[in-house]
Amino acid sequence: MMGSLLPIGFAAPWVLTALAALPVLWWLLRTTPPQPAHVKFPPLRLLLSLRNKEETPQHTPWWLILLRLMLAAILIIAMAGPVWKPLDIAEPKTGPLWLIVDNGWDASADWDRQIRMAELMVDGAAQNNRTVMLVTTADGPAQPMRLSSAQEVADQLRALTPQGWQAARSELIPALQKQAEQNAPGAILWFSSPLEEPSTTSFARGLASIARASDVRESSFLIYRSETPVYALKQLQNTAGAMTTTVLRHPAPLAETLTVRAFDRKQRAIAEQTIEMKAGQSTAEISLELPSELRNDITKLSILGKASAGSTVLVDEQWRRRKVGLFAGGFSDRSQPLLSPLYYLERALAPFADLPPAKSTDITTAISDYFDKGISVLVLAEVGTLPKTTEADIASWVSKGGTLIRFAGPQLPEKQDSLIPVALRLGDRKLGGSLSWKEPQALKSFSENSPFRSISLPKDVTVNRQVLAEPTADLPDRTWASLEDGTPLVTAKKHGNGTIVLFHVTPDTKWSNLPLSGGFVDMLRAITSISSTAVFNPDDEEGTTSASALPLLKMLDGYGKLTPPSANHKPILERDFATTHPGRDTPPGLYGTDDAARALNLMEDEDNLIPLDLKPLSMAKILDYPSEKPLDLRGWFFSIAILLALLDTLALLWLSGKLRRRQFTHAAILLLIASSLSLTGADKSRAQDNAEQFALDASLDTRLAYVLTGVPEVDEISRSGLFGLTRLLTDRTALEPEAPIGLDLQNHELAFFPIIYWPIDAGMQMPSPEAMSRISAYMRNGGTILFDTRDAFGTGSNSPNKLKLQQLLRGLDIPSLEPVPQDHVLTKTFYILDNFPGRYNQSPMWVQASATTSDGSRPVRAGDGVSPIMISGNDFAAAWAIDTEGNYLYPTIPADGNQREMAARVGINILMYTMTGNYKADQVHIPALLERIGQ
Question: Do the domains at 97-228+613-629 and 701-925 have one common CATH topology?
Fold first, then answer.
């Protein structure tokens, strides 16, 4: 283990014992006189030398002794390996190293530091030839728990990303105990996230028990905890005037400003709201006051700059505010509103729906006006016989996706129309009173196929009058709620794409006390939530039907981004969706189909951010993640030792008389200046010269550029590939580029190049935040980056290169993407192309999504319409790569000469597209061009 002294540690602290020999060295230097001065003594110079007063000292001067003691001490310290702010590295006395990494959603706040620390620990294990077992807490006990080499674990760490659910650490305790019995750990490292799991079983207590049973020492049991705040959103509500949500954070030591931003289906920002949180404040409510039409376009809310699965809320149909049309039949006394059939309906629906007023008391005019206003739900209270034209209009509207809710009453027609979900008996049944054998009935149950199944059954509701349904074979399937005697209270049926619902009681208190119950509000909310916010077009006659099982469509990752699902996740039964909790098997995300997606969010209304409890681990050493990397000071100490040795040499020359005092002073000054320049200025001047030369090479001639990944074989393929593309451009076009340039993203200027080829490799290092900022600026200012994962031969799986690209794109502000459409400019800039092959021909080319006009055409965009990003996996550089003699270096897969030619054409089209923009999409000049061709 690295010894430490304050913020300085030593790789070999035992070397410092040599400092005890400094007093002996001082005594030797003091008693040993310096070398006497040598003076030439020819006979003729005897008289001239008589005035020489120089004397050789008997002892070495004290300042020279001090200089040499400092030199010896600094050399000893340098050989001890000094490190500024060293890391505590757990080295097992015997046995393997356990590496436990929290990779739940809350780990995303400090993920980079967490993985960097884990990689440093694995590097230390590799130097000591120790085996390592990697355990990730969000992946459950089914993950393989086995001892591996440090190199294999390092590769696994680079591929890790935080998951979108909370880590269930306690599930791992039995598997870890079994592993400890087979091969006890010698050291345990836990890289923890800030939050505790919602479980009664304590992972910390179980881990402490394993450490005690395995006799793991405190110095070999380290826990790194994160103090970076974690943010979350919960309690989403769409009220009458605004969409509100609650912001959570932990810990909350400082005051800060947070911004919640709303996005639409195309990930465009609709609105945002800023809130000031005081020091110590952990919760706050934020409100987006927007018209209901804009709120209905919101698909996601997230906290700006604090992206995670917890700080992201997905918005689906159930959260969108519906427009509900209300129409009552009969005659209502406006002076007594409590007797109005709409009184309770208006108050029950107002919190979650918009209620546009009726234009007329005439049902035909009112219904037509409601349809023009785009209502989703139509409520008819005590409406009798409908006019035939109105009945047909309502039936057509329902078949296109509308929801009709009807209530029974005295005006219910004896001759039933087509807008009644079940056959009814004539008259109504009275319960209670002197002429009835039956007592008022309470609610019995909600059907499993009804939207009420997740509602708590109201115990205080009684019904004293109802309309009975004829007992038919399909009546149980159409019953959503029933009374204790089994008679239906609410029935419904599908009609085309819509739904017809009938309450067998009135909407006021004449037949039951249901309107006085909170269950009435919940029932209306449930019916409204299953309706669509917009009626389907007539062309969409088939519509969408809800399947019994909702498959995972897209899942939220730890950073709050929607990603394709893997095969390890289960679908959710539609009847269980409202009660499903997000987890490893059912992660947060979108379920169902693209047209009818249901959102499962991570944070539920009752959830809170519970801080991680590490009290049971008093036997372990608990550390914070370091804010900066350790700094090796050996180079600095050796440099100082060299300077002191040079000064000692000058002092010896001066004492021996071979160097005059003035010469000594000048030489010492020059020596110090030269030494300081060599240590600090050489690199700067060399860097400046290199930067100037790079700018000249990049600007005086047109050159293609590729990103240096740090993987030699990948960089060589990129160089030879762009060299081959340069030859193709010279032979086939008027463009004559010079040799390609490899780009160091940290130091080189990117603005000289219209397009940059970036091959993705799992082993490459992630760019620094400063480099990522420069890349984003380059793309915003008109540059294009072509990302190539080079793995299309395995398109069906999440390859390491694809995972690396996903990790890279999280740090960039990228637009919405789509595969290259058939009418895109890329397909016709120089050659006419149908697809975009490289060495492989299995991956589509992705570019920025283009907006389409009403006639289906693609309008010209600003900036010449050039996509700032292109993504492919077809390994373009390998298809273009040639040697100095023009021979192709890599075969195409499959080996097809035509594919090689098409890959060459793809490269030329890409270069012409990025350098000339969308001129071929400009429709203005087509008549002039056609006229010129005709002439």
Answer: yes
Tokens representing residue 322 in the block: 């519906």
Question: Measured between alpha carbons, how far is 919 from 439 in angstroms, rounded to an integer?
Answer: 81
Extents of the domains making up the chain = 7-85+633-659, 97-228+613-629, 230-319, 322-529, 549-600, 701-925
Contact 588, 164 (CB under 8 A): yes
Strand partners, 284: 247
What single-letter DSSP state applies at residue 730? H
Q: Which of 149, 119, 154 is nearest to 131 (CA)?
A: 149
727 contacts 882 by C-beta, under 8 angstroms: yes
- Tell me the two tokens of residue 152: 């294999």
What is the residue-wise DSSP string for 856-881? S--PPPSGGG--SEEEE-S-HHHHH-
List, in order, residues 6 or more apart from 759 with CB less than 8 Å away: 706, 707, 709, 714, 717, 718, 788, 790, 877
CB-based contact 918:866 (threshold 8 Å) = yes
Among candidate residues 373, 372, 513, 335, the one with its CA nearest the CA of residue 432: 513
Which CATH number is 701-925 given? Answer: 3.40.50.12140
3-class secondary structure, 538: coil
- CATH code of 97-228+613-629, in short, is 3.40.50.410
Round to whole Å and give the CA distance between 310 and 231: 7
DSSP category for residue 814: -
Backbone torsions φ then ψ of 314, nearest 5 degrees? -90, 140
Structure tokens at 470: 């004829």
- The bridge status of strand 403-407 relative to strand 377-381 is parallel
The one-character DSSP state at 515 is G
430-473 tens-digit pLDDT: 876 555 557 889 998 888 888 888 888 888 899 999 999 999 98
Q: Residue 617 has which token pair?
A: 């681990």
Output the six-digit token pair for 166: 């909370």
- pLDDT single digits (tens) 858-914: 443 434 578 899 999 999 999 999 988 888 888 888 877 789 999 999 999 999 988
Are 556 and 533 a contacting pair, CB within 8 Å? no
| Contact present, 27 and 60 (Cβ < 8 Å) | no
> Is domain 230-319 given the CATH code 3.90.650.10 in the classification?
no
Q: What's the CATH number for 322-529? A: 3.40.50.880
Contact 234, 603 (CB under 8 A): yes
Which amino acid, 344?
Y
Paired sense of beta strands 597-600 and 589-592, if any: antiparallel
d(CA 77, CA 70): 10
